[in-house]
Amino acid sequence: MNNNNYYDKGYGQQQGYGYQQQQGYGQQPYGYQQSAAQVQNEHALASYVATVMQKVYVKMGLGLLLTAIIAFFVASSQGMLNLLYGNSWMIWVLCIAELALVWGISGAIDKLSSTAATALFFVYAAVNGLTMSVIFLAYTAESITSTFFVTAATFGAMSAYGYLTKADLSKMGSILFMALIGLIIASIVNIFLGSSTLQWIISIAGVAIFVGLTAWDTQKIKAMAEMTDVSQAGKVSTLGALSLYLDFINLFIYLLRILGSSRD
């Protein structure tokens, strides 16, 4: 009950109903205690959500670091390059492994322990490092570095927006998901067409889609944290790290296609 309304009710009836006035005044401290408890709970929830989000960003950052280290190591080793790119079936194995890991983590998160889910996430980041090594062969180190910082700034801004905004981004998320499906289909079609114009359009669309998905996923992760208890914090942070990791990697790849300088 709102304290001011209750007090006003008692005050308004002071002439005819002195007892009700006293009753209303007497319950004012009770109403005040309720408000204080509610504020305290809100602060505790906000603190818990902030802690979960911190874990999300830490895991995601470590995953990106692991991917970068492995990608650079593979690109610097002729033996590893021969192993990976000298056998066409190896790339298919890695791609299938990546898909299996993403689906496994997302689909079996309830059955996995927090430690197991986190371990699988880092395994995925490591495998992705193997496939990402090709960018060091295709683009100059300077353009990779500059594109990384552009990606980091863009990702940071959109993730902050998704975390802080009061607007509901769920409708935008549904549209972006459908656009992502269209993007995948267009990419598959262009494998056979080999159109540079379509590739350019796909790259621009990819940037726009993953910029939006970054904000949407951040808000979704925040909502997940708000609805789960402390015992699930580890799993939520791992799922969140995986989602934002994928957003960052894809945003980086599409930006690199636009901003990157070829070694040729």
Fraction of helical residues: over 70%
Terminal-residue CA separation: 71 Å
Query: What is the typical, i.e. mean, pLDDT?
Result: 84
SS field, number of helical segments: 11
Give the low-confidence spans.
1-34
Number of domains: 1
Radius of gyration (CA) equals 26 Å
Biggest sheet record? none
Share of β-strand residues: under 5%
Order of helices and strands: HHHHHHHHHHH
Structural class: mainly alpha
DSSP E strands, number: 0
Give keywords.
264 residues, mainly alpha, 11 helices, globular, disordered N terminus
Describe this structure in words.
This protein is mostly helical and 264 residues long. It has one domain (3-258). The protein has eleven helices and no strands. The protein has helices at residues 3-12, 18-26, 28-75, 78-85, 88-107, 114-132, 135-138, 141-164, 170-193, 196-227, 233-259. Helix 3 (28-75) packs across helix 11 (233-259), helix 8 (141-164) crosses helix 11 and helix 9 packs antiparallel against helix 10. The N and C termini lie far apart (71 Å).
